[in-house]
């Protein structure tokens, strides 16, 4: 697959999206009589059958208190738990499995780093550098730590932030979607103009319609997107908008779903007489 919009070409082997989708049973559903078009992956991504089965297997066969049980059944569970830690360490090439700490989510991980590492290492007068693009989960803990220890927060603005990533499938969907959005009068797309600097997320607004209304009308078309400040009020303030509508893509999304999104925008405009 080669993605060209503006800037360098992004190459990768094409994904067999039809096959990948078969691993995600949830995607076969309809909502409101329409095929489910799930474009809220930045907030919650869907789980493949392999993950669902592994989780069921734990509860059906292995659930017990790990590390502290003195009976063989609990010891087996502890061994499986530690095997998973070793497997993750190998997968991400960590020098030691002791570096692998399981947490519930990004918010818990970032709070842990800010408070456990931060309280030990950040001192009065230190400067914590963050960016205007950070989710609250990577902003608020640092802000609170700075207040607590007397450090300073420096916020890097959008123009100075470089983006390091390449997810070719999601970018190919963005490359497909962006020109279509740009053709629709009244649609403002946020973020860099060149594909090279983008990730698999497209935030936009339709002039005259609040993003919450946009998402509600999209819902009637089976299209699930996120509307609001996306837990990033500094960026909303910087962009001068109260909220945006956000479509976030993943490896199971398709160009047909991008067409459904574009169709939903036309429906929203029609409903509002715009
Ligand atoms: C960009 C971004 N960062 C962080 C988070 C927080 O993630 P978690 O739910 O894993 O704490 C979210 C959640 O929506 C997010 O969209």
Average pLDDT: 93
What is the multimeric organization of the chains shown?
Answer: single chain
As a percent range, the share of helical residues equals 40-55%
Alpha plus pi helix count = 9
**Element-by-element helix/strand order:** EEHEEEHHHEHEHEEHEEHEH
For this structure, the CATH topology of the largest domain is: Aspartate Aminotransferase, domain 1
Measure the end-to-end span. 37 Å
Strand order of the largest sheet: 8-9-12-11
- Beta-strand residue percentage: 5-15%
At the first level of CATH, what is the class of the largest domain? Alpha Beta
CATH architecture of the largest domain: Alpha-Beta Complex
**Annotated CATH homologous superfamily of the largest domain:** Aspartate Aminotransferase, domain 1
| SS-derived structural category | alpha+beta
List the helices and strands and how they pair.
Elements: E1 2-3, E2 10-11, H1 17-22, E3 30-31, E4 34-35, E5 37-38, H2 49-62, H3 72-91, H4 106-121, E6 127-131, H5 140-149, E7 152-156, H6 168-182, E8 187-189, E9 201-206, H7 211-220, E10 223-224, E11 226-228, H8 233-239, E12 244-248, H9 255-271
Parallel strand pairs: 5-10, 6-7
Antiparallel strand pairs: 1-2, 3-4, 8-9, 9-12, 11-12
Helix pairs in contact: 4-5, 6-9, 7-9
The structure holds pyridoxal-5'-phosphate.
Residues 42-43, 105-107, 135, 137 line the site of pyridoxal-5'-phosphate.
Defining traits:
single chain, 274 residues, alpha+beta, Aspartate Aminotransferase, domain 1, 3 domains, two-stranded antiparallel sheet, 9 helices, disordered N terminus, binds pyridoxal-5'-phosphate
């Amino acid at each position: 697959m080669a993605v060209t919009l503006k800037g360098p070409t992004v190459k990768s082997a094409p994904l067999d999206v039809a096959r990948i989708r078969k691993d995600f049973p949830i995607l076969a559903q309809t909502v409101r009589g329409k095929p489910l078009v799930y474009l809220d992956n930045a907030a919650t991504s869907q789980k493949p059958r392999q993950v669902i089965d592994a989780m069921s297997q734990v509860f059906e066969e292995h659930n017990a208190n790990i590390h502290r049980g003195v009976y063989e059944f609990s010891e087996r569970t502890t061994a499986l738990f530690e095997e998973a830690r070793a497997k993750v360490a190998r997968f991400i090439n960590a020098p030691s499995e002791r570096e692998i700490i399981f947490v519930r989510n990004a918010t818990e991980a970032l709070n842990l780093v800010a408070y456990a590492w931060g309280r030990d290492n950040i001192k009065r007068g230190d400067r914590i550098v963050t960016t205007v693009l950070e989710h609250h989960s990577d902003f608020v803990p640092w802000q609170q730590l700075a207040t607590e220890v007397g450090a300073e927060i420096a916020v890097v603005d959008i123009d100075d932030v470089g983006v390091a990533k390449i997810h070719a499938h999601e970018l190919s969907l963005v490359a497909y979607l962006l020109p279509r959005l740009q053709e629709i009068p009244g649609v403002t797309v946020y973020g860099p103009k060149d594909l090279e600097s983008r990730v698999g997320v497209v935030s936009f607004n339709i002039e005259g319609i609040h993003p919450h209304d946009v998402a509600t009308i999209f819902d009637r078309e089976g299209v699930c997107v996120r509307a609001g400040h996306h837990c990033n009020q500094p960026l909303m303030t910087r962009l001068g908008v109260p909220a945006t509508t956000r479509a976030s893509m993943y490896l199971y999304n398709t160009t047909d779903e991008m067409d459904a999104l574009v169709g939903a925008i036309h429906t929203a405009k029609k409903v509002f007489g715009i």
